[in-house]
Amino acid sequence: MPPAAIGVVRVSGPGAREALHALAGRVPKARRASLADLKDVDGAALDRALIFWFPGPATATGEDLAELHLHGGRAVVAAVEASLGAMPGLRRAEPGEFTRRAFENGRIDLAEAEGLADLLAAETESQRVQALGMASGHVSRAVAGWRDRLLGLMAGAEAELNFADEDDVETGDNVARRLISGMGALAGELGEWLARPAAEVIAEGLSVVIAGPPNAGKSTLINALAQRELAIVSPVAGTTRDVIETPLALDGIAMRFSDTAGLRAESTDDIEIIGIDRAKAAVERADILLWLGPPKEAPDHPRAILIAAQLDRWRGDAAAEAEAALADIALSAATGEGMEKLHRYIVEMARTLLPREGEAALRQRQRAALAEAKQWLEIETGSREARDLILLAERLRLAGTALDQITGRAGVEEMLDALFGRFCIGK
Fold first, then answer.
1. pLDDT range class, residue 168, cuts 50, 70, 90
2. Can you give the CATH number for the domain in which 397 is found?
3. Into how many domains does the chain fold?
């Protein structure tokens, strides 16, 4: 948004060439930058700008497209937009309309558009890498490969069903066995993709919950991690009554840290009881748990880091040091001792929850479509259905339809408005 060093105004559609000629008095060579004095319909100067002409369909939107690289002051951009808006057949773009036109004109598919939306919203390095892979077609290429294999299997089924009397066509049980083997192999590959972390984990941030008994140092720890006074610290037990959440990024990984009410067996305070229940629910949903209580009392969690907190208070106490020896790390959030080690612990554990380098994670919508495709490909060997080529061919067709939902070739009309509405006006 203005003001900026440069303001880019894009015109896309059948009127783009005429609009560019009206402002600049000429149309430059295709895909060449040219300096021009822009004027309104009355001949008044608007700006001296770089102009570009991109004839379709080999453009970002698949249509004729003109770009004006203006000085980025508000008045300059507003004056040029006003002149364009006064021309017949031109109107201001809706949010995400250029990207939507690119999708509708086949320049990108739905998975790439979703990746672009995530790239625009990326705030951390892990989000950028994941979104860039999606926008660059990582998932789309995988889907294209799966479709090619499906088409090969479908061709074999159709050949048997329609041309079984031809001498060069494989027939009988051999066809069914080959189909089932191919379907099983493809289902296994889809299962491997479904076993990867969901894209929402990267986009929304891993949930890191700090839990433990009252006065264990939970609020002091989250304040130290956030480097600000996020939670109230008090020696009075039960000070924290609700889950306090703050977004943080550690080594480029987005996380959501939550401070919780102290967990204890009994309480006569109704509000504290509600806080304890919410704390327990947060622990169950946590991707990573930071437990500040006695190690033997830690909840059964697959990714718990046992912390002996308040090191500055109990150092030298033999009993306390013996119990602390059972923890993964001892630290003092008040003095900072051990905080760097905790940082490394959290990051190392977080990396196990993220896709490996070169892997792409799937959105919930994409995962649902992939799971549906996998379901159609899974069939019990030896069953009656496994010997029926018509049913096998139908399963292959339905699996292909499910895959088409990932790239937007089928069944996604209801969610397009919501997706492209996330983009800015100029995108």
1. very low
2. 1.20.120.430
3. 3
